[in-house]
């Protein structure tokens, strides 16, 4: 039972990490674009 719970938790954590990483990456790109405009 503990193994199944850990496995499910790990899948959720991995999914969360991927979503979080995607948001962070798009935010970084957006900031980079805005930064480039501001510096011009």
UniProtKB/TrEMBL annotation:
<protein>
    <submittedName>
        <fullName>Uncharacterized protein</fullName>
    </submittedName>
</protein>
<keyword id="KW-0614">Plasmid</keyword>
